[in-house]
Amino acid sequence: MNDIFEVCAGSVSDCIQAELGGANRVELNSALSLGGLTPSLATLQQVKAKTSLPVICMVRPRPAGFCYDKVEKETMFLDAKLLLENGADGLAFGFLHKDTSIDVDTTKQMVDLIHSYQKEAVFHRAFDCVNAPFMAIERLISCAVDRLLTSGLQAKAIDGSALIAKLQKCYGDRIQLLAGSGINASNILELKELTKIHQFHSSCREWKKDLTTSVGNVSYAFHAKDDYDIVGLENVKRIVLKLRGK
């Protein structure tokens, strides 16, 4: 099976760098500093026009957790429909109840909508908040989710490799496993060997300065410095070369 490397992108430029670096797919977001929110339609349209990469769009209306109220869900389903109608190749989403169990009914509704457009349904790292991962993945499979992004219920995928390996062994023939969080060129081959999975997700982050971020007594900085995160071309290249055995 061929390895797939997905870049977590926050802009059109990020997606262009991902393609130049040899990535196979992008997950398109806005507001990566908040964990990734729904991207704009203009951003999606530009990415589709300027790259040939499959684009999975995030559907997440706000920061924090994944237990949404009625209005938030309505917004997510409208966003989902608009993104699918404007070229998204799939959507990443996650719905949980207050007790961190999978919101099966809403998940199934979202999967059915995505599949009605013949696109991919991806349950994101909301999964890493659940208390019963084996029960949770079985529920996702019952909803016909195509792919699960997970760090194995740990902050970093390398630390959750044991669980990812178990999920792959037990369920890898029924749902795609995509490992994400903290993946870089120094650990991707170890993670691949430990888990036996073939899909990996990384932000390939580096920082770029904007000199107008802090001026006088006014600051719009969200990071320690006056900069913002972007996809680093060389970071993408290093991971791709590792996966290709070079």
CATH topology, which one?
Answer: TIM Barrel
- Report helical residue fraction: 25-40%
- CATH architecture annotation: Alpha-Beta Barrel
Class of secondary structure makeup: alpha/beta
What is the alpha-carbon Rg in Å? 18 Å
Instruction: Spell the H/E element sequence.
Output: EHEHEHEHEHEHEHEEEEEH
CATH homology superfamily name:
Copper homeostasis (CutC) domain
> How many beta-strand runs?
12
Attribute tags:
8-stranded parallel barrel, two-stranded antiparallel ribbon, 12 strands, 36% helix, globular
Description:
- The protein is α/β, with parallel strands linked by helices and 246 residues long.
- Strands 1-2-3-4-5-6-7-8 form an eight-stranded parallel β-barrel, surrounded by six helices. Strands 9-12 form a two-stranded antiparallel ribbon.
- It starts with a strand and ends with a helix.
- It is globular.
- It contains eight helices and twelve strands.
- It has one domain: Copper homeostasis (CutC) domain (TIM Barrel).
- α1 runs parallel beside α2, α1 runs parallel beside α8 and α3 runs parallel beside α4.
